[in-house]
Amino acid sequence: MANDPRPDSVVEPTPLEHTPTAPSTAATLIAELAGTFLLVFGIVGTALFAANFGVSDEGTSLGVGFLGVSLAAGLTVIAGAYAFGPISGGHFNPAVTLGLAAAGRFPWRQVGGYLVAQLIGGLLATLVIFLTGLGGPDGWLSAAQDGGFASNGFDELSPGGFGLGAVILIEIITTAIFVTVILGVTHSTRGTKLAGLAIGLMLALMHLVAIPVSNASLNPARSIATAVFGGGDALIQVWVFIVFPIIGGLIAGFAYRFLFDDTKPFVRS
Question: Membrane-spanning residues where (predicted)?
């Protein structure tokens, strides 16, 4: 510019371009650990501390019951999804991770790290609850452990006395429904900004269905975390709540991939 008083040697600075970077592997694994901790702490803590609080011989109770535990599951997922989802995707559940991988929405090479982080997060949550119980009223911790420490189970360990076949069926179906909803509401083109809310509400609903039958696993990390403190019977039965939620998640992943996520271009005949 002819009238520009600045020396020719002055170069106009250009704005710095901000290029978003993906979270590091360490950050994603820590987020998965933290989110799983939140989920298990919310569900199991509510089940052990609040579900039957203040039950008296007259039948009165200040406890939140099945409904309160189900809402705790949903609320923790909603909070975790918005807090940690942008970092790790917010799986917090081995069945979800494997279901997403089966659907082609998550790399198989990253599955192992996520599963380890989820297991550690769940175990840390039940450890905190156990340590809290050490400072509880006389007999509280032993009663919680004698009652299974909110573990999942069948036959005598089922809240409603349901057998193995019923428990297997309910765990497969509820997990498959849950993972299918996750895949739908987080789809890149058909998803919704309210995905975290929809996922949390669906988990609460599936807990309302499954708690009387199996005490509602839908999540192997949650089941392992409680079985460790729940005693021998819970540990003997925990395989059911590792295998069948995973089967449900894989069914949902493969079914969604081939039935609902066809991205091939439409060609008129």
Answer: 26-50, 62-85, 91-108, 115-134, 162-185, 194-214, 234-259
Could you give the CA distance from residue 95 to residue 56 in angstroms, rounded to a whole number? 38
The angle at the Cα of 37, spanning 64 to 62, to the nearest 5 degrees, equals 10
What torsion, rounded to 10 degrees, do the Cα atoms 26, 223, 142, 147 define? Answer: 160
Q: How far is CA 135 from the centre of its chain?
A: 28
Question: Residues 125-174: pLDDT tens digits?
Answer: 999 999 999 999 999 999 999 999 999 999 999 999 999 999 999 999 99
Percent of the chain with pLDDT over 70: 87
Q: What is the pLDDT of residues 46-65, one digit of tens each?
A: 999 998 886 656 666 778 89
User: What one-letter code names the amino acid at 55?
Assistant: V
Q: Cα Rg for the chain, rounded, in angstroms?
A: 23
How many whole angstroms separate alpha carbon 203 and alpha carbon 221? 15
- The CA distance from 158 to 212, in Å, is 7
Residue 76 resides in a domain: yes
Q: Residue 56 falls within a domain, yes or no? A: no
Q: How many domains does the chain have?
A: 1
Of the candidates 99, 104, 66, the one whose C-alpha atom is nearest the C-alpha of residue 177 is 99
Domain that holds residue 67: 25-51+62-258
Asked whether the predicted pLDDT for residue 229 surpasses 70, the reply is: yes
For 85-113, how does the pLDDT look when each residue is reduced to its tens digit (9 = 90+)?
999 999 999 999 999 999 999 999 999 99
DSSP assignment letter at 196: H
- How many other β-carbons are positioned within 10 Å of the β-carbon of residue 242? 18
**DSSP label of 12:** P
Instruction: Please answer whether residues 234 and 83 qualify as being in contact, where contact means their C-beta atoms are separated by less than 8 angstroms.
Output: no
